[in-house]
# Entry
Amino acid sequence: MPVLTVNAGSSSVKLGLVGDDDRLLASRELQAPRAQLDRDELQAALTGPLADADAVAHRVVHGGERFRGAVRLDPGVVEQLRALTDLAPLHQPKSLAALDAVGELLPAVPAVACFDTAFHATIPAAAFTYALPERWRRRWGLRRYGFHGLSHAWIARRVPSLLGLAAGQARIVSCHLGAGASLCAIAGGRSVDTTMGFTPLEGLVMATRSGSVDPGMLLWLLEREAVSEGEMAAALEHESGLMGLSGSADMEQVLSRAQGGEAEATLAIDVYIHRLCAAIAAMVTALGGLDVLAFTGGVGEHAPVIRARAGEGLRFLGVEIDETANRGAAPDAEIGASAAAVRTVVVRAREDVEMARQARAALAT
# Structure
């Protein structure tokens, strides 16, 4: 069953055709400013090699508390997804726009929604509960949802296979480091903790997102500096992270400037690594130990300096990265020192494969 995967991003939609053997048979990326797909371009893309799909898998950012796994799409499910837009107003509309556009052109092909939140549905109450008034939590569903679940789910599958470990036995910290970044603590093949929270703003320093900051500081700004809610949202989402620290959201560029001795870029990398190592250590606490540290995503796969710096900061946990293996690593590869207590790997992000597998499973039930 070849599966067409539809991944709607901030300004584009990535289409892929994944075969039964997990090979990517064809792919296209279409520009979609403001989540608007050009119907003619989409139709042209779907009449080429991508036309051989027997099913469609849509990446949907938010499944709320209801959707704990992939689900076949029907009008009732789509309506429920629209109702979740308030939980992810920046991301859900993009997924829904792509869902509508592809559905209009391929009405006879069964479609499945695959959720970025679903893999984290297994985290315990101690990890997902915020220490907020119960009336708030009940009324608005305030809890940790977590994101990047499709990427972390792939790591949970791929790492044991790559390292020859029994499925579900390894304690893994999955580091999805890209423009957005999050960690996941994986035990028994399931998520038990993660760094993103009610929104994708919480957790690590990212390309343009702040990650975790003191909420009291934000209240102070609202009260004393007349910063509007819209200005604050824009700053936290688009002007913070590496961008706020160095003036650039491009990790490769920031690393190059830091290696050239530029103070702002050096500070940006130092802050990034400090937060990353502290958060990995917190994930290890949730696991009660660590067997495998896995890097994935654009930065995780292509920035050996970040992997090396993280390894240095985590030596006390048994992480030791082989310098030569790390510098020349091409995913999927092991980069840990042979005698290290913790194995370290670089894994190519394959959300498309995870989506295709989930779609086939959902349609088989």
Summary: The radius of gyration is 20 Å.
